[in-house]
Amino acid sequence: MLAINYAPLYKWAMLTVIIECQDHEPELAQTLAALVAGAVEGLVSDVIVLDHGSSDGTSKVADAAGCRFYSQWDIKDILRAARGEWLLLVEPGARPQAGWIDEVAEYVSLNKGPARFTASRGYRPPFLKRIGRRSPPLELGLLLSKHQAIAIARSGMQLAEFAKGQKGRRLSSELIPSWVARAAR
To answer: How far apart (Å, rounded) are the C-alpha atoms in residues 162 and 176?
Structure first.
């Protein structure tokens, strides 16, 4: 019998996903479900959930999925403890779509700067609602190196603050934004 080695394909491009939550149990579950394929392929090494005092089952969802869950933290300590050399910051409820694993793995192996996903065409607000709308800083996620994040980090900083002012390349992979999950509630 021929033995096939299915070692992680992307061990050179390990990624830590960080999600900040407060009473986002269903949204967190949706995001984690979308990340499973990345973990199976060996791209996602760990997921960190930073909680702001949730009173729902957010901690149970995170625990069941094998995430590291923090209700108190210093962002610099979290960043240093991340297993991946690259970080993906996303809102609970955001879901990367087909093709994201290969594109992110290629991007982190060839690039140094930050990147964001493209908004999913099927989930864009109507044109008139987009005019003058201010998008949340992490609506399309933020992919950046651990080194860059540590250089930016200040005590008490929230994830959305990392995204402010970060110009980055736009990935062709699409992301269903978190507001879609919130609207379905």
So the answer is: 20
Residue 6's CB is within 10 A of a number of other CB atoms, namely: 8
pTM for the whole structure: 0.86
Whether residue 6 lies inside any domain: the answer is no
- For the chain of 185 residues, list the mean pLDDT of each consecutive stretch of 10: 44 83 93 94 95 93 94 93 95 94 93 90 66 77 94 87 85 86 57
Please, what's the b/e burial string for 117-142 (b: 16 or more CB within 10 A of its CB; e: otherwise)? bebbeeeeeeeeeeeeeeeebbbbbb
Q: Which helix (H) or strand (E) holds 48?
A: strand 44-51
Asked whether residue 151 is assigned to any structural domain, the reply reads yes
Look-up of token digits 């008490």: 156
Q: Which helix (H) or strand (E) holds 181?
A: helix 178-183
